Amino acid sequence: MASSARTHLFAGVTIPDTPLITKALEYTRLHSSDFAFNHVQRSMLFGFIIADKIPELASRDREVHAIAALMHDIGWDPTGELISEDKRFEVDGADAARNFLKKEAPDWDKHRLQLVWDAIALHTTGTIVFYKEPEVVACAYGIWADFQGPDRVQGGLLTWDEHNKVVAELPRMELMKNLKGIMLHFCHTKAATTYDNTVGEWGDKPHLSACAYARNIPTMSAASTPNGLSRKRKDISDDGFEPAVKRLRIHEAEDDPAPPPPPEEPQSEEEEEIYVPRTRQEAPPEGFDDLYLDTINRSVLDFDFEKLCSISLSNINVYACLVCGKYYQGRGPKSHAYFHALEVGHHVYINMQTQKVYVLPEGYEVKNKSLDDIKFVSDPTYTKEQVMALDREAKTAWTLLGKEYTPGFVGMNNIKENDYFNVIIQALSHVPPLRNYFLQTSFASSPELAKRLSILIRKIWNPRAFKSHVSPHELLQEISLKSNKKFTLTNQSDPVDFLSWFLNNLHLALGGSKTKPGSSIIQSIFQGKLKVESQAITAKADAGDRLRFEEAAEVTSSISRFLFLTLDLPSAPLFQDELERNIIPQVPLTSILSKYDGLRAQEHLNQRKRYRLLHPLPPYLLLHVKRFSTNKFVSERNPTIVTFDARNLDLSPYVEPNPAFAQPGEPIWYDLVANVVHEAVRGREDSVEGESDKRTWKVQVRDRGTEEWFQVQDLFVEKTQKELLDLGESYLQVWERRRDPKG
Questions:
Q1: Which of 59, 438, 500, 553 has the fewest CB atoms lying closer than 10 Å?
Q2: Would you place residue 226 in the very low, low, confident or very high pLDDT band (cuts 50, 70, 90)?
């Protein structure tokens, strides 16, 4: 395959663009540190630049070349999943790539699979790799060019201009410094796999690579050398050729020079035994595993923020330092957590995925019940009995500082302009079926949206929290990414717009169908049915050339499904009172609900429509009071107050009778669960925006255990009276259908 049907230009290089290459890139990202991920991409680009200038390589399979180059160093996997105990890292990477391709590209033949395997397994063995097939050679050219720089590529096949364009897009990120840590790690952990490749140049006593042993030890018996190899101390091997790693030593580009090779130390003429380093995972003697636990500082721990390494910004294999609260990647030698332990003296870390606690740099796991409170705060879990008891009794809890709070009624941090998000999450977390589902269900294999919402709801209801508020940062980051930055923590948005987007995307994240109703818990809780009757209106001129509107005789009827109902407010008064103030009108909730009684007509363009609710009504009804309208010039707010009783909202007048669900005239009672309120804050006269109103949001939620009401506005939580709920500008309400109509 000489070329791919689709290509794209990156850093001035034309490369193939196929779904399989995209999947390989994503897989490589999961199993690469940041510097390695940039390195493999540069290697691919350099390989295409060089190979496209060599006629003998023009007929190569470009997809094979790209995938082999991108995956050639997944044997460095920082997660450890792809690293074996007894194979060279090149073979680990080649095996992992072949397994990936067998799964993702079942139509690939054995020849293409073998080309990828050879290109990865042999890329450090210069004595072999440059005599292989064009795909393998092209891949090696790119990899070696990333270390050697343009000056060492023969024939000027890579210019400095081409090189610098690629590096500008994919910075080197101290490649040689990071590479040294990886190579030394392999010398420490599996020296027998470091012969006849670039790893052989690394290692220091007593952690020598196999090549280092061959050069430094005068005589060694076959039984005492790695893999039974017998080598005398000389620079030329027994078969007469100079070791590839010495003849083809790789160097970093001029802007990041390679360190000098390790100096040879004088050795005795006697045979030297191979040093086997003590495993780091060895636990201390019994009774001493609680060392360093007294250094843990619970007051600085905050597990609400996105789990990103504070050094590399990677989200893979992240640990939290229990002394300073910062996140670091990895816990092995040369990892950021390991260096933090050595440099600062912070020794206790928790894995944010497994909740296991380790002491570094020693590396042993700590199994101590005194750490259970930290694990619970990081990832709260609940039994079925605990969940069922949430609404039956009032619970009071205390933070680390002794501040009293009620689980479920905690503040939420407004990082900048995310109060529109806070009120929606607070309201949804008080819908019992939805709350219970996210408290009890495991979302380990679910999309990030569902997983992060579950964590946030579990923290809102945490009875053992270290502080009386939570931060939605982690969930907001995922929402910002998934909505293409439509909803962010830095820009104000409409809560109902966000709710609509959030419920639909959450429905899909939970496995819901776009066509099958009730296919997720979201639709089971909130979705209802609506009958819409439409009648066409036509405009005609009569004999006197006057315009007349005529209704069509035919009335069409259709069934629509909804997640929330929009209620229209009457127009605000245009005239002021005698004090030159605008009168704020009031309207009962039942009055604006009459839109759905099937009698009142609504005119939309050339259609006259009537709406009627249908049985069965949803267990929880979302009502949106439409307050904002926008024309070509300005956005207007309707300040009309909606009055209501928090209990005993009867929806039977708005539902088409159906004896299968309710007897005619029988009331259908709903009780208020949450009330989202808009509050306009007038800006200062000397501000840039003048006297424009700023939108802020708060939510009122009911404590089912005590029937008390709490008002939550960002971090501020206070009790309020039920009689005061309708004094604000209600914008969104959550109503719960009463199970017992007589209750």
A1: 553
A2: very low
**One CATH from 3.40.50.200, 3.90.70.10, 3.40.50.300, 3.30.750.200 for 524-737:** 3.90.70.10
Residues in a beta bridge with 411: 469
Q: Contact at 8 Å (CB) between 672 and 649?
A: yes
pLDDT-derived band at 81, boundaries 50, 70, 90:
confident
User: Would you say 226 and 212 are in contact if contact means Cβ atoms under 8 Å apart?
Assistant: no
Q: What is the mean pLDDT of residues 152-159?
A: 82
Q: How big is the chain by its Cα radius of gyration, in Å?
A: 34
The CATH number of the domain covering residues in 7-173: 1.10.3210
Task: Note whether 83 and 75 are within 8 A (CB).
Answer: yes
Residue 69 phi/psi, 5-degree rounding, is: -65, -40
At residue 456, what is the residue type? L
DSSP letters spanning 575-595: SB-TTS-B---EEEHHHHHGG
pLDDT at 536: 85
Predicted pLDDT of residue 583: 75
What angle, 0 to 180 degrees and rounded to 10, lies between the N-to-C axes of helices 62-70 and 134-148?
40
Within 442-493, residue ranges assigned H as helices are 448-460, 473-482
3-state DSSP assignment of residue 414: coil
Q: What is the pTM of this model?
A: 0.62
- In this chain, the answer to whether the domains covering 384-507 and 524-737 adopt an identical fold is yes
Residue 607 — φ and ψ, nearest 5°?
Answer: -130, 140
Confidence of residue 275 (pLDDT cuts 50, 70, 90): very low
**pLDDT tens digits for 620-646?**
999 999 999 887 777 888 999 999 999
Q: Tell me if residue 252 falls in helix, strand or coil.
A: coil
Cβ-proximal residues to 235 (8 Å cutoff; 6+ apart), any chain: 215, 242, 243, 246
Q: CATH assignment of 293-378?
A: 3.30.40.10
Query: Which two structure tokens, joined as six digits, stand for 202?
Result: 């690394």
CATH 3.90.70.10 fits 384-507, yes or no: yes
CB atoms within 10 A of CB 101: 21
Q: What are phi and psi of 506, to 5 degrees?
A: -65, -40
Domain boundaries, the chain: 7-173, 174-277, 293-378, 384-507, 524-737
Beta bridge partners of 555: 535
